[in-house]
């Protein structure tokens, strides 16, 4: 409510709009207000007025279309406005009595010029290779004989050659530099003039050489960030070993452990310093929310069988497949609306409907795979997030025996054909392959749980072994880890596999699985004792994986000042 009073330029800009009609009215008022603001010079004023008039005209045209759809959401309206405005162009009007005219190619039709300077004669600009400003797909436009890209190219060719009918001298200027917007190629029309006409053609190349008058000192690389485990850092780390002064006992999850394995510094930023991800306005479908919907839907589908103690057989899956649309709607309502809601009250947005279709297809893939397992499925656990799966893991800290509280949220535990399985659902591109060098002298696979970064390692394998270790230590029963990777399971199955270069793949079962479990237990102990070693600071290893778009990327590449006594 205080925002409108913070500026005297256009206070209405800070008023909240409740519908699309108000939004369009406010945009028109804003553009009109800007057009009335004087520019520093007459030329700037002319250019700005022309652009604002074109933008205002485009807004009015869109408003006429929006009036036919009063229930249109503000989010969708803004997307349409942005997409329409980004292609907006404005012609510059000049003095018709001036001997020099600056105009576009279309404006030059039916006019003759003695000297022509054609600027921007690059392939892609002349002719234009991008589609026109329309939301109608290319196939529909071509089927109904609407203008398509070929028509634009033909029009450009006609206007160009029409311009050359009575000229005395033509200068074609193009940019040979290659970047993300320019291919560096001259227009095909210029090539045709060179090779198909008898006109004399001369070429000139102009380049600007940069020769600095004095040498600049190259700044040294910033020092590696190192956070010592002292002061408040050590106090907060102790919460994983014992109760903190406020009575809180923190647990270490599989994702937190995997984060530490890759980058101790990123673990510090997120779990010790408590630097949270900043809130962002995300207009796209969030991948993690799609995963949440699918996990919840699979739990809702299988929950009745777990409660009744009934095994799943081939006859049950036909009925489950019929329930998929309704169950996915319920899962989406819980994820996006925060409540299950009545079926009549489930009004989903366009993006939520897309999530629904994706979720339904993924659930059908999971169900189809389970139906083809060749035996009844006895469900033992589903999304168990209770205190049951909290494990006190012993570690040595400064010569004393301590314990770290490990937490496991297990997607599913079942028994199929006598084999107890722990199942982890994955909706991304997780792989089943684990790199192995070969066989050692004892006939066992020689491999590492983690190889310096996730590009050379298997994060899903580490996390699934984390769940497997906790379950086996608490239940006392041996289980086989299975990864239900949506992109791999139909072609590669669900068992992890050792991959040896030039020799093939070997399933991680039997003796190989027991070796992997033993090696993980040793790896887990080493990494946790490293985590709680006060002599080893938090650092970001060279070559560690930093995912594209990570909000912590700037913290991992710049120096930080985190004092020992600084709280907060």
Structural class: alpha/beta
Q: Count every beta strand, where a strand is a DSSP E run of 2 or more residues.
A: 15
Unreliable spans are 1-6, 559-568
Major β-sheet profile: 4 strands, mixed
What is the percentage of strand-forming residues? Answer: 5-15%
Form type = elongated
Quick check: average pLDDT?
82
Helical fraction: 25-40%
Radius of gyration: 33 Å
Count of alpha/pi helices: 16
What is the CA–CA distance across the termini? Answer: 30 Å
Main sheet: which strands, in order across? 4-7-8-12
Give a written overview of the molecule.
The chain is built from 16 helices and 15 strands. It is α/β, with parallel strands linked by helices. α13 (459-475) packs across α15. It has helices at residues 20-35, 42-66, 74-85, 138-143, 149-163, 188-196, 231-237, 254-262, 264-272, 287-308, 314-337, 350-371, 459-475, 489-492, 510-531, 553-557; strands at 115-119, 169-173, 226-227, 377-384, 390-397, 400-407, 410-416, 419-426, 433-435, 438-439, 445-446, 480-485, 497-500, 504-507, 538-539. 19% of the residues are buried. A four-stranded mixed sheet has the order 4-7-8-12.
Task: Provide keyphrases for this structure.
568 residues, alpha/beta, 4-stranded mixed beta sheet, 3-stranded mixed beta sheet, 39% helix, disordered C terminus
Short characterization:
By secondary structure, the protein is of the alpha/beta class. It is 39% helix and 13% strand. Helix 1 runs antiparallel to helix 2 (42-66).
Task: Give me the secondary-structure topology.
Layout: H1 20-35, H2 42-66, H3 74-85, E1 115-119, H4 138-143, H5 149-163, E2 169-173, H6 188-196, E3 226-227, H7 231-237, H8 254-262, H9 264-272, H10 287-308, H11 314-337, H12 350-371, E4 377-384, E5 390-397, E6 400-407, E7 410-416, E8 419-426, E9 433-435, E10 438-439, E11 445-446, H13 459-475, E12 480-485, H14 489-492, E13 497-500, E14 504-507, H15 510-531, E15 538-539, H16 553-557
Parallel strand pairs: 1-2, 8-12, 9-13
Antiparallel strand pairs: 3-15, 4-7, 5-6, 7-8, 10-11, 13-14
